[in-house]
């Protein structure tokens, strides 16, 4: 049953690259990562899964949350999102400069 969910969600087992890039910094901050076995890269960064979570969560719920996180955004929605992030960075930068004077 878990294997079917893994295939449908297209998640992967955690490998050394993911461990060193994402999990090791969390572990150094005191976060328990020992139960995380799988991952998927989403629009918001990596998402980690445990065997227990996959076994108790219905596939419909997993697919629904997956579509929100990975998203099927249109090009216009992606451009809007990028432009918002750029404006936010510029705003923070501008206020940091003004605040330091």
Structural notes for this entry:
The structure is a single chain. The chain is α+β, with helices and mostly antiparallel strands. The chain has helices at residues 2-9, 16-28, 51-56, 59-70, 75-100; strands spanning 12-13, 36-42, 45-50. A 3-stranded antiparallel sheet has the order 1-2-3. It starts with a helix and ends with a helix.
| Uncertain residue ranges | none
The helicity comes to: 55-70%
- C-alpha Rg, in Å? 18 Å
Question: In this structure, how is the largest beta sheet organized?
Answer: 3 strands, antiparallel
Number of helices: 5
Across the major sheet, the strand order is 1-2-3
Short overview:
Helix content is 64%, strand content 15%. The chain is α+β, with helices and mostly antiparallel strands.
